[in-house]
Amino acid sequence: MVGITEHPAADRSVAELLATARAALQAVAEADLHGMADDELSAHLLELQRLRGALDVAEAQVLATWDRRRVWRADGARVPAAWLASRERIPMAEARRRLRHARATVEHPAIAEAWAAGEIDRTHVTSLLAKETARTERAFERDLDALLGHARRERFRDFRRRLDVWELRHDPDGAEQRADEGRAAREVHLAQTLDGMWVGRTVLDPVDGQIVADALKEIEEEMFEADWAAARERLGREPTALELERTPAQRRADALVEMAIRARTVPADGRRPAPLFTVVVGLETLTGPVLEMFNRTVISPGTAAAHLTAADIERVVFDSPSRVIDVGERRRFFTGALRRAIEVRDRVCYHPMCEDAPERPQIDHVHEHAKGGPTTQANGRLACAFHNRWRVTHPDPGDDPPAEP
To answer: SS3 of 224, please?
Structure first.
């Protein structure tokens, strides 16, 4: 009897391989997931993410060969992106992005390797390539492995921040130019529809946008407290967010109107309020070009300098003996300068599943105060309200204070 063996992938046509892949994916889509354990579901989800990376790179490599051989010209397309946009019915910008990624897998094998392994996503590739310019080409090639290492290990927001810092150090003129272009692109559109409603669109640079967002947020929080109190009185108990009179989007809309009303009613001789934005600088870069806002947005020195005459500037320097920010060990609550130091140091909730700066931040003891944890900067961390409650119902053994020596 002659044994039948599976042909190696190299001996099979691409059409056969794609048909096999399609059949496998169809089988996964039709699999019964209802009896599967939660851990299994999470593991399968992560494995599919890795497979998506492998599929993206396989597509990119086929696309790179197709582009290099100029196959698209046979159908009368002027450029390859036009062919892709037409045949795949996608925006021209998306077609250009895929072509850029395809060429990058040839130019930077390290990107292709990490992407195919599912260690990075297409969004990481887009962010990396945005920093590769004629001015940064040599530094980008030199530092690519290190940047990919950060992409593999860090949350995406932290990775983007690291890329922005890298760009400021290696192309400060380009960063300033892009900051100027961003400010020049500011615009607000507000128009009335045929049925009398108003619709709009706003584009602001990082600092001006933060000023507007902070003012809007302050009024929205006032309205949230009012809605919460009204719901508590109506229900006779603590309400849930879904039981409030207005949705968050409705409160923001009302807050915008209230902001306009307050602007119209400011006394003629009143003092114009100076906006506050926090600039965070590490001691090692105190005299360097890297500036970062409270929400971790990296800005250029020119952007910060443009507001020096109109804003209150709060400078926070870490690891410096010039300012004592640890103001006591036995207080129950984090207040004053100590609270502000922790807010500026952390800026996002401590929990790994929570990336945004909390709207109503709380300062949590790493080692619980009830178990002897001190009220110090080292033992404090920023938490959103949800995860501050979460640690009570999901205790971590690591939260216990270290044993006395």
So the answer is: helix
Contact 171, 136 (CB under 8 A): yes
Provide the residue type at 247 as one letter.
T
With beta carbons less than 8 A apart as the criterion, state whether 219 and 263 touch.
Answer: no
Per-residue model confidence as pLDDT tens digits over 380-398? 888 887 777 777 666 665 5
Domain ranges of the chain: 38-170, 204-264, 336-399
* Mean pLDDT (whole number) for 152-175: 88
Alpha helices for 75-205 (secondary structure H): 80-88, 92-107, 109-116, 122-130, 137-153, 156-170, 172-184
pLDDT of 343 higher than 80: no
Per-residue DSSP letter, 9: G
* The total number of residues written for the chain in this structure: 405
Tell me which amino acid residue 219 is: I
> What is the three-class DSSP state of 315?
strand
Q: How far apart are CA 374 and CA 331, in angstroms?
A: 8
Name 200's bridge partners.
190
* Residue in this structure with the two tokens 């669109």, named with its chain if needed: 201
Residue 267: partners with Cβ closer than 8 Å, 6 or more residues away: none
Any idea what DSSP says for residue 108?
Answer: -
pLDDT of residue 183: 86
pTM over 0.70: no
Q: What is the pLDDT of residues 364-380, one digit of tens each?
A: 777 776 677 787 777 88
DSSP secondary structure, 235-256, as one string? HTSPPPGGGSSS-HHHHHHHHH
**In this model, does residue 334 exceed pLDDT 60?**
no
